[in-house]
Amino acid sequence: MKKYLVLFSLASATLAGQALPKTETTIVKYPKTHKSETVDTYFGTSVADPYRWLEDDMSDETGAWVKAQNKVTFNYLKKIPFREALKQRLEKLWNYEKIGSPFKEGNYTYFYKNDGLQNQYVIYRKKGDGKEETFLDPNTFSEDGTTSLAGLSFTKDGSLAAYLISEGGSDWRKAIVINADSKQIVEDTLTDIKFSGISWKGNEGFYYSSYDKPEGSELSAKTDQHKVYYHKLGTSQKEDQLVYGGVESEKHRYIGASVSEDQRYLQISAAVSTSGNKLFIKDLSMENSPLVPIVEDTDSDNYIIENEGSKLYIVTNRNAPNKRIVTVNADNPREKNWVDFIPETENVLTVGTGGGYFFAEYMVDAISKVLQYDYEGNLVREVKLPGVGTASGFGGKKENKDFYFSFTNYTIPGSSYKYNVETGEYTPYWTPNIDFNSEEYESNQVFYTSKDGTKVPMIITHKKGLKLNGKNPTILYGYGGFNISLTPAFSIANSVWLEQGGIYAVPNLRGGGEYGKKWHDAGTKMKKQNVFDDFIAAGEYLIANNYTSSDYLAIRGGSNGGLLVGATMTQRPDLMKVALPAVGVLDMLRYHTFTAGAGWAYDYGTSEDSKEMFEYLKGYSPVHTIKEGVAYPATLVTTGDHDDRVVPAHSFKFAAELQDKQSGTNPTLIRIETNAGHGAGTPVSKTIEQYADIFAFTLYNMGFEELPSLEN
């Protein structure tokens, strides 16, 4: 094992092309990571797992390793001369008032607001034209800001509310019920809720989902059987009624329950993976009514978006990869009775309802287009959006004739607009006052060719007047999985990168949802390599067209995107200078043995499926493809010690392998955020520190020793 890393400055010029002095040679010692003799056998093939012990997040040994790694990492980061300047700029730019779109519940209008640098958004409300008041302040939930609001649900009349909290970034939630008017807690806190919302049935109680608490570590132990419960107010959680998921025939990894807006129907969705679900409906207006199946297999994605009496409106990709809306009577809701309401088109559909209308939001090459329909399926109008980018939030309650939508892109901060459903007119509601001049930047969409000839779109954002000289620091960001679409959206952090003369490039890789189910499926299981090839081709495009070069290219992604970065840097270590895998799925042979990981098998397959699947996974699994003596790019792995979505052992084992086998002088570090999870609910203060470290590490390892002048 290597005991140290010799770090040299690679800088010879700033962004402005001025000469820089050489830094002194620095010795950075890695913590010692011992190896065990653990070996697994898959279909007759032995696979060593020397860092298996790092999977035990409850052990003192793992805790000591985390502290030792963080000490090395933060000692390295604090020596970067412009790290503090980046943090200060991030704080200054972040420090503006942010207001979410209002929503009405009962007699009050509620909205989320952050004064600037508050760790968590505060929920305010006001009655009519009255004075606004604080309703919930999550900043008071814990001293360090790491307990966050993870959900809020009101009864139909707005008199009661239940809110979910997450502690330390965990996916496990607690539910607290309050009287909305007085804000007083009305009963005991519910615990051990996971992957769930709250859906009220009148004012009597609500539905929620959870797993039995696992044996051992609740952060990493497998959770495999989701269950839906009904909680009646005023009773103990121990008395909650099991609604679905308690017997073997109902065993699924993800089950959700929701009550229709008119309170008549309960719909239950049951899935074994992150794609495809069964769908059931229950008539709540009838006592002891049966649970009626609508779809009994998991070959498609389906949910009820609306109903008018017994007429159901279902969004589905069944025989429609880009989705469509169908109607059917609840008395006989099987597929054979479905009638197209809004047929499938060549673009992917997302649906909202509000004010007595349907809003069909389409992605056209990852750009938003919105069409308004009435309840007979007639096109009312195309909504003329404020620009080219991403629109969201088209929807509200049926009785409200006004609602609010938001619009953003990579250079324009999110703004909200008040929309009138009858006239189609909208007016600005809130525009951020931010110290960033969008007019100085531009985004352009290009289409490049991947390895197998597939055309892939990518949006490239940078300062206007950029010189294509191959020397621009560039972050290539990707995801490529789980039917997730990357559409243009403003990021405060990325705007600081752009201010440094940086380029931010986002390709819409296969595995995502930008072109529907076919695009998603083209990046799954035995086709997962397509995703990595698309990402590699994006980097090659940027280099070939002189946006950047390998010396100035960083690749970044989180979760499934962390896998993308890990696989890309191990397959093509020569392509980039810096690699930034965040909370990544990096051990592809064992991912399905932790928490709810088995539910990702639709995208990945598992090492237990077949010898062919095992060999395919092992062939790209980042932990297993690191080779001795290869010069890998400068790498900063980031994770959270409370991540119970993608357990930190993935990142721990990957970092240990890199530190052991890395050749050359590029640093291999891991930054482990303590009392933090997969990302949601992370305090603003921690987020700012993390971005400052990521950008500082990236620029420093591209050779920069000072920043361009920061605008004040």
Write a brief structural summary.
This protein is an alpha+beta fold. The chain has ten helices and 41 strands.
Distance between the termini: 47 Å
Oligomer: single chain
Q: Mean of residue pLDDT? A: 91
- Count helical runs: 10
Secondary-structure-based class equals: alpha+beta
Q: Which percent band covers the strand fraction?
A: 25-35%
Shape: globular
The helicity comes to 10-25%
**DSSP strand tally:** 41
Q: Describe the sheet with the most strands.
A: 8 strands, mixed
Q: Output the strand order for the largest sheet.
A: 34-35-37-36-38-39-40-41
Q: Low-confidence spans: pLDDT under 50, at least 5 residues?
A: 1-25
Q: Rg, please?
A: 26 Å
Question: What does this 3D model show about the protein?
Answer:
- This protein has 712 residues and is of the alpha+beta class.
- It is built from ten helices and 41 strands.
- The strands form ten sheets. Strands 34-35-37-36-38-39-40-41 form an eight-stranded mixed sheet, sandwiched between helices. Strands 5, 6, 7, 8 and 9 form a five-stranded antiparallel sheet that branches.
- The longest helix has 18 residues, at 60-77.
- The protein is globular.
Write the layout of secondary structure elements.
Blueprint: E1 4-7, E2 26-29, E3 39-42, E4 45-48, H1 60-77, H2 83-94, E5 98-99, E6 103-105, E7 108-114, E8 122-126, E9 133-136, E10 147-154, E11 160-167, E12 172-179, E13 190-194, E14 199-201, E15 205-210, E16 227-232, E17 241-244, E18 254-259, E19 265-271, E20 278-283, E21 291-295, E22 302-308, E23 311-316, E24 324-329, E25 339-342, E26 348-354, E27 357-364, E28 367-373, E29 379-383, E30 390-392, E31 402-408, E32 415-420, E33 426-430, E34 441-449, E35 455-463, E36 474-477, H3 492-499, E37 503-507, H4 516-521, H5 529-544, E38 553-558, H6 560-571, E39 578-582, H7 601-604, H8 611-620, E40 634-640, H9 649-661, E41 668-673, H10 684-701
Parallel strand pairs: 36-37, 36-38, 38-39, 39-40, 40-41
Antiparallel strand pairs: 1-2, 3-4, 5-7, 6-7, 7-8, 8-9, 10-11, 11-12, 12-13, 14-15, 15-16, 16-17, 18-19, 19-20, 20-21, 22-23, 23-24, 24-25, 26-27, 27-28, 28-29, 30-31, 31-32, 32-33, 34-35, 35-37
